[in-house]
Amino acid sequence: MHAETTARLLIRCPDKPGIVAAVSNFFYNHGANITALDQYSTDPEGGTFFMRLEFQTPHLDLSRPLLERTFGEAVAARYAMEWRLSYAAEPKKMAILVSKYDHALLELLWRWQRGDLHADVAMVVSNHPDLRDAVEAFGVPYRLVPVTRDAKAEAEAQMLDLFQDTIDVIVLARYMQILTSDFVDRYPDRIINIHHSFLPSFVGAGPYRQAYDRGVKLIGATAHYVTADLDQGPIIEQDVIRVSHRHTVADLKALGQDIERTVLARAVTWHLEDRIIVHENKTVAFS
Amino acid sequence: MHAETTARLLIRCPDKPGIVAAVSNFFYNHGANITALDQYSTDPEGGTFFMRLEFQTPHLDLSRPLLERTFGEAVAARYAMEWRLSYAAEPKKMAILVSKYDHALLELLWRWQRGDLHADVAMVVSNHPDLRDAVEAFGVPYRLVPVTRDAKAEAEAQMLDLFQDTIDVIVLARYMQILTSDFVDRYPDRIINIHHSFLPSFVGAGPYRQAYDRGVKLIGATAHYVTADLDQGPIIEQDVIRVSHRHTVADLKALGQDIERTVLARAVTWHLEDRIIVHENKTVAFS
Amino acid sequence: MHAETTARLLIRCPDKPGIVAAVSNFFYNHGANITALDQYSTDPEGGTFFMRLEFQTPHLDLSRPLLERTFGEAVAARYAMEWRLSYAAEPKKMAILVSKYDHALLELLWRWQRGDLHADVAMVVSNHPDLRDAVEAFGVPYRLVPVTRDAKAEAEAQMLDLFQDTIDVIVLARYMQILTSDFVDRYPDRIINIHHSFLPSFVGAGPYRQAYDRGVKLIGATAHYVTADLDQGPIIEQDVIRVSHRHTVADLKALGQDIERTVLARAVTWHLEDRIIVHENKTVAFS
Amino acid sequence: MHAETTARLLIRCPDKPGIVAAVSNFFYNHGANITALDQYSTDPEGGTFFMRLEFQTPHLDLSRPLLERTFGEAVAARYAMEWRLSYAAEPKKMAILVSKYDHALLELLWRWQRGDLHADVAMVVSNHPDLRDAVEAFGVPYRLVPVTRDAKAEAEAQMLDLFQDTIDVIVLARYMQILTSDFVDRYPDRIINIHHSFLPSFVGAGPYRQAYDRGVKLIGATAHYVTADLDQGPIIEQDVIRVSHRHTVADLKALGQDIERTVLARAVTWHLEDRIIVHENKTVAFS
Q1: How close B238 gets to chain C, by Cα (Å)?
Q2: Could you report how far apart the first and last alpha carbons of chain B are, in Å?
Q3: Residue A217 with chain D: CB contacts under 8 Å
Q4: Is it the case that residue B8 has pLDDT exceeding 80?
Q5: Annotated catalytic residue, options C15, C168, C231, C274
Q6: Which residue of B110, B117, B131, B245 is the best one to mutate when testing the D interface, meaning the one whose CB has the most D CBs within 10 A?
Q7: Cβ–Cβ contact B258 with D under 8 A
């Protein structure tokens, strides 16, 4: 809506009485108008507290740097908060990694083009040349970074070089290479993958084949943050679609791709709007 | 969870900066531990603000009457709030009205019996004798109040007499009589009906027949507060189920009854947990 | 799958014993291998019978013209069948009509491009120039046919001229002009529209606004064949998505567009695969 | 519908041209009126063929025994069919096994009582006394068969004794004992279990706890035939419901029980209506 004036605060801290009052007081006293507030506690007695605050900045009586410093000292320190302030006017820089399947990628680019994904799509990186034209038609740079089994480290180094420390979030839109722990560790809770099954069912390769073999009656897709453990990262969003004995593996793949598109688009949207907080390999999703 | 110590506050007022801070401060300062907070504004500039607060009472420094008086004077008056405090330890008194279909009624009684519906089910009132045994098996009194076309007023008077001003919420679990405006006006936003269609499609009688004739591919059910306008009251919850050309009207009725059960159970649960606020013939549902 | 060798038969006739035997005998005796068979009767006693047969043609002992003539004389005449044979190798010629919204159009073109829509997309016709580039990027001709209130007949004549009697199916992918009865009558059960509501709720203009005002908890979309009565034609497919009080009209529109895309894509796919039979303003959908 | 006159034929055999014609001819020639026909082939070239035929018996020109013998000799033998004829007028005898949870059991009994489950519910067997009153209120015998770790074989022998070879289908409505292979092997494809997860996720004990720990965004339930491998049998039906970080393990359990009820009811209904054929640890479900 008011992209120029919207700010968001994400908080995680040990739960204690008074946090909501302290935070809302602080922002009220400094002229912020709170337009959304979500909070959650794993346990009011000794649990972990999470909060997302969306507010409008026009009447703030502090500059952004001062606001952050004051909040840090006056509120966050008192409650031992981990916190992050972000401004809709400074959209996250996003890189999309893809191999050959275009469905998840095009869904993101199409939503981005029409203004529904509030990101700065800096580039698409692929280990294959196939999707160059499709990507460049959106005015987005396409970077080819081939990956070979023996030169994975080099390929990742090349990607980091392209990113130049400016990338805030990486989306794996059916990128068929496994990233190394070294790479993943540089972007904690900032790499989003779409896995083509309803995790934890059917981890690893060929999930549609696995689903077919098991004879499930629903297939699904899972968007999750990437961690060093393959397909084990915190789940952001999942959805399913009904299938039957009539569907071949190819049918499952085609049907599943529709779910992959939807699920990934939701997860990326929520991440960009600072709606997701990771906690102990799970997500708190204020969606 | 902690039924003895949980209290809930529902607020509606003109939106202004500072409401969240004022409310959370008040409860924090008086020793309440906030365990859930939902808020919504139709428009931060001049709209209407809604809030639901759930808190624990053990460390309150005020008695309930004093808490309510103090909150009313110190906070509510300043923001022109309409508000309501309720205590989980004082469950709402509920009357269920039913005719001959048992599905919606039994779903409620079964959930109530296992402790999932936090109400005091005072009685079931019916215009037919059929369901007496089924109801009494749950230990709930069954009151027969026949209704004839010419004596509707007498029947309603008889019901009001049974209720003796002690009933907080009335659930129409497929009660096939239309209540008069006089009756409805006594219980604003406190009579919940289940309509057997996805409103506003198929208002009035025979919605499954109407759905069949129109050839819809999904049928649904709608729980709504009853107003003087038939089937026009604020919608609390809706859901649908897929159907096909193979289904007869009888099939639609059987399938639809499953949805009616689910939708009504959710709506009643939310009402009992003070999750619904009515505003301009719509509901704000903090579900 | 085997696009070159797949044929499909659609039948509608008065139900009588022996139809399935007669049809399956005929095709078996002439060397067709039946790969799918769906049938439905509104009532085995005096109702209407519907059947869809999919078979493989390689071992047919008759040429196509002879097959059709022989079936017509030997089987169809006996049971007073309305019937239609089609061959996957001769995909239907499709024209897509669109105004300014691109979502439904692009969904169809994208699925067509990847081979999931078995049609020959002959052209996109629009009353606005906006989507020319997007369409031409798919290699599909874009025809601009402006429509003014006073010259609707001329515009439709211009479209018919473009179609040159070669178009088998017309898809209204959010085409915001109402077609005249004259035009509609030329394409009975062959014009598919996507309406942006869960019909019969919210007919006419502004359904998302209507849905917002009514406060429904699910919004939907409906694909239907176009008849002379606006929004009253036989429903092919519908689906819904959950919404809440937090959603603005703009949110409903954005969420709804996802459902429009899905529902229209399914309806068009089924039509192209000869899975839909219209009967008394309803559809039999062998999907 | 016409319970007295409805018969059903289930077939499995190697696929070959002419099966549909042969079967439909046979029944047509002997006066059966086919009211439903479903068929499926894993592969028209050398695959397995499945068929379900529903027909009306009033005008049959053969007695049941003769019909079966003639069909076996004239049709089934020629195509090497495994087949089964059943008559709606002879409902399957069903035993329900349960431990302490009542939700799945009561859902079945309630549907059965209102005539939606076409079975003869012979008895409920439990290893606990808790649900006796609830069951006997439906007029169904309740048999207590305690199970101890050391005397499982005796308990199963006691159950077999109760069944006296008259039970056609056994439903495990949250029966918390693992049956031995010996027992399971006596009822191939005739024991239906409801597992409280979306299999193959979360096999074994405590699936709601497992789901909570993994942080999934949907939980589910799975009805499957019981085989010697725990939770690995052919899946009949599955469904899911959306959950969030706000849900505790207890919440997941409560929400999941609603899905368990629905999924088990569907699976049992389809089994009773002879809609399920098992093939290579998967099911063909003509539902």
Answers
A1: 6
A2: 16
A3: 235-238, 285
A4: yes
A5: C231
A6: B110
A7: yes
Topology given in CATH for the domain delimited by B92-285: Rossmann fold (3.40.50)
**Cβ C20–D17 below 8 Å, yes or no?**
no
Q: How would residue B170 be classed by pLDDT, with cut points 50, 70 and 90?
A: very high
Q: What digits encode the pLDDT tens for the residues A232-284?
A: 999 999 999 999 999 999 999 999 999 999 999 999 999 999 999 999 999 99
Helices A19-29 and B19-29: crossing angle, nearest 10°?
Answer: 140
Cβ of D106 within 8 Å of Cβ of B110? The answer is yes
Architecture in CATH for domain D6-87: 2-Layer Sandwich (3.30)
Nearest-CA neighbor of B111 among B132, B96, B99, B98?
A: B96
Q: Do B116 and D262 touch (CB under 8 A)?
A: no
Name C87's bridge partners. C7
- How far CA A44 is from CA of C48, C84, C108, D214, in Å, comes to 64, 68, 50, 22
Give A71's contacts (C-beta < 8 A, 6+ positions apart): A9, A26, A83, A85
C165 SS3 class: coil
Min CA distance, C147 vs chain A (Å)? 26
Q: Is position C231 annotated as part of the catalytic site?
A: yes
pLDDT at residue C69 greater than cutoff 90:
yes
d(CA C84, CA C78): 16
Residues (pLDDT < 50) of chain D are none
B2: pLDDT strictly greater than 90: no
Give the residue extent of every domain in chain C: 6-87, 92-285
Write out the two tokens for C126: 């629009």
pLDDT averaged over every residue in chain B: 95
User: Given pLDDT bands bounded at 50, 70 and 90, which one contains residue A1?
Assistant: low
Backbone phi, psi, residue B271, to 5°: -60, -45
Report pLDDT digits (tens) over C89-111.
Answer: 999 999 999 999 999 999 999 99
pLDDT digits (tens, 9 = 90+) for D21-55: 999 999 999 999 888 999 999 988 899 999 999 99
Our CA dihedral for A216, A222, A226, A227, rounded to 10 degrees, sits at -50
CB interface of D with C, residues 55-114, below 8 Å? 56
Beta carbons of B214 and C200 less than 8 Å apart: yes
The type of residue at B255 is L
Is D92-285 in the same CATH topology as D6-87?
no
Q: In the structure encoding, which two tokens stand for residue A23, read together?
A: 């935070």
Q: Please report residues of D whose CB lies closer than 8 A to that of B262.
A: 258
Asked if D41 is an interface residue toward chain A (Cβ–Cβ < 8 A), one would say no
User: Cβ neighbours of residue C236 under 8 Å, at least 6 residues apart?
Assistant: B217, C192, C223, C224, C225, C267, C270, C271, C276, C283, C285
* Set of chain B residues whose Cβ sits within 8 Å of the Cβ of A31: 17
Residue A3: the pLDDT is 74
Nearest CB to D235 within list A216, A237, A246: A216
Asked if D20 and C18 come within 8 Å (Cβ–Cβ), the reply is no
The number of residues making up chain C comes to 287
- The interface predicted TM-score (ipTM) is 0.95
Q: Active-site residues of D: which are they?
A: 231
Q: Which residue has the tokens 């001329």?
A: C154
To the nearest 10°, report the CA torsion of B223, B227, B228, B231: -20
CA C222 to chain B, closest CA, distance in angstroms equals: 9
Q: Of B27, B72, B36, which is closest to residue A21 (Cα–Cα)?
A: B27
Q: What is the pLDDT of residues B27-53, one digit of tens each?
A: 999 999 888 999 999 988 899 999 999
C70-76 contacts, C-beta under 8 A, 24 or more apart? C70/C30, C71/C9, C71/C26, C74/C26, C75/C22, C75/C23, C75/C26, C76/C11, C76/C13
pLDDT at C221 over 90: yes
Touching check for A254 and chain C: CB below 8 Å? yes
Grouping H, G, I as helix, E, B as strand and the rest as coil, residue C58 is: coil
